[in-house]
Amino acid sequence: MSARGFDPELTRPAQNGVYFVGDDDLGRLARTAARDELQVCRIDLDGCHDRHVLLQRLALALTLPASFGHNWDALADCLRDLGWLPAWGHVLLFEHADGLRRAAAADFEILLGILDDAATFAGEQDKPWFAFLALPDDVSGRSPAAAPKACDPEPFSESRKTMQNIEFELEGDYVELNMLIKLTGLCDSGGAGKAIVASGAVTVDGKMELRKTCKIHAGQQVVLGEVAIQVLADSR
Amino acid sequence: MRRLNSVLLLVAMVVAGVLWQQHGAAPAGAAAGTTTADTTSGRLAFLPPEATATLAAIARGGPFAYRQDGMVFGNYEHRLPAQPRGYYREYTVPTPGAGTRGARRIITGGTPPAVYYYTDDHYRSFRRFGRRQ
C-alpha cells in the first residue's frame, strides 16, 4: 500500500474514476486488478507529448478497432465500448504520464475528461472502470482523488474559518451534482466536478455522495469543504 | 411531441424525395454535397439502409440496439456547432459484417431532436440532415 493514499476498491463501480498515482504504484494495481479478473491495459506514455502520439499509443495498447477515427470523440466512443476486450471491468494504467501533462496540458485535461466520462458510463452499467495515471510524487501526492489541476482543493482548505453560504437557484427541476459544483464556480468544468465528487469530498444533506451526476433538487444542501450550497427552486 | 416531430421529419424527407424526382435537379446541400433522397423510403441517399432502423428507434425513444446509444456526444473536437453538454446524443448505425459497432453514427441535437448529423468515418466528418423546428 502506498503511503500516499489508499487504493480504490477495484471491484466497486461506485469508486470508478480517474486517479493519479506514482509510477511504482502501477505494478501493485495491475496485480490487484488481475486478481479480481479485471481486464488490465497498460499504456506507456514515455515520449508522448501530443494528442496524435497519445491516440496512436491508445489504439495500440487497447487494440482499438481498425475503424477508430483517431480523434477525441472517437476515443470517447471506444472507451465507452471496449467490447473487443470482454471483461466484467477494465483498469487502464498510464505509465509516464507526466511528459504529456507538461507538454500538452490542454490535451491532458481533455484526456482526463474522456476517461472520467468512460468511468461514469461504466458505473451506470455497474461495471468497474478505472484509469490510473502515473505522475511524479509532487503531483500524485493528492491521490486517490484525481482532482484536475483546475480544481485544486485550496479554496476549501481548513484555513478558512467560517462556512461560506451560496444560494443556487435551479433552472428546471434539478441539477446534476458535478454541474452544480461547476455552476457555483467551485471548479472550472463538469469533469473536474465529477472528480471532486468521486473523491468523497461532497456531502448532500449531510451524507457523503459519490454519484457524480446525482440529481440535486430544490431544498437540498450540498457541502464541499467550507462551502455550503443551498439549492432553491426555479422561481420563473 | 417527440413522436410528432419525428413524423414531421419523415414527411419532410418523403416530400423532399418527391420534389427531387419531379424536378430532376439536385439542390445544393447545406453541409454536404448531396441531399438526394430515395423516394421509396424517404431515406437520404448518403444514409445507409441500416440508418432507417436507427432513426425509427430514435423517433420511438428506444429501445436501442446498443447500450451506448442515446448517450451524450461530447463534441470534444468541436466539429459540430458549440452547444451545452447534453445537447448532442449519439446512436450507432450498425455496419453489417463488422465485429464491432463500426464507424457509423447518427448524432441528434436537442430534446426532442431538432437537428441530425451522420458520420460514417468515426466522427472525422459529419453531414447534417433533418430540419430545424
Shape-level CATH architecture of the largest domain in chain A:
2-Layer Sandwich
The main sheet of chain B comes to: 5 strands, antiparallel
- Chain pair forming the biggest interface: A-B, 22 and 24 residues
Specify the overall morphology of chain B: globular
Strand composition percent of chain B? 15-25%
Order of helices and strands of chain B: HEEHEEEEE
Alpha-carbon distance between the termini of chain A? 52 Å
Please write the CATH class name of the largest domain in chain A: Alpha Beta
What are the low-pLDDT stretches of chain B, counting only 5+ consecutive residues below 50? 21-41
Radius of gyration of chain A: 18 Å
CATH architecture of chain B: Roll
Contiguous low-pLDDT stretches of chain A (5 residues minimum) are 141-161
| DSSP helix fraction of chain B | 10-25%
What average pLDDT do the residues of chain B reach?
79
Question: Mind sketching the topology for me?
Answer:
The complex is a heterodimer of chains A (236) and B (133).
Chain A: E1 17-21, H1 26-35, E2 39-44, H2 51-61, H3 72-79, E3 90-95, H4 98-103, H5 105-124, E4 129-134, H6 137-140, E5 164-169, E6 174-176, H7 177-183, H8 190-198, E7 202-204, E8 207-208, E9 215-217, E10 221-224, E11 227-232
Parallel strand pairs in A: 1-4, 2-3, 3-4, 5-11
Antiparallel strand pairs in A: 6-9, 7-8, 7-10, 10-11
Helix pairs in contact in A: 3-5, 5-8, 7-8
Chain B: H1 2-23, E1 37-38, E2 43-44, H2 50-60, E3 71-72, E4 88-92, E5 105-109, E6 115-119, E7 127-129
Antiparallel strand pairs in B: 1-2, 3-4, 4-5, 5-6, 6-7
Describe the structure.
The complex is a heterodimer of chains A (236) and B (133). The longest helix of chain A is centred in the middle third of the chain and has 20 residues, at 105-124. In chain A, the strands form 3 sheets. Chain A has a 5-stranded mixed beta sheet, with helices on one face. In chain A, strands 1-4-3-2 form a 4-stranded parallel beta sheet, sandwiched between helices. In chain A, strands 6-9 form a two-stranded antiparallel sheet. Chain A is elongated. Chain A is built from 8 helices and 11 strands. Chain A is α/β, with parallel strands linked by helices and 236 residues long. Chain B is of the alpha+beta class and 133 residues long. In chain B, 28% of the residues are buried. The model of chain B is unreliable at 21-41 (pLDDT under 50). Chain B has 2 helices and 7 strands; from the N terminus they run H-E-E-H-E-E-E-E-E. In chain B, the strands form 2 sheets. Chain B has a 5-stranded antiparallel beta sheet with strand order 3-4-5-6-7, covered by helices on one side. Chain B has a single domain (2-129), classed as Nuclear Transport Factor 2, Chain: A. Chain B starts with a helix and ends with a strand. The interface between A and B is medium-sized, with 22 and 24 residues.
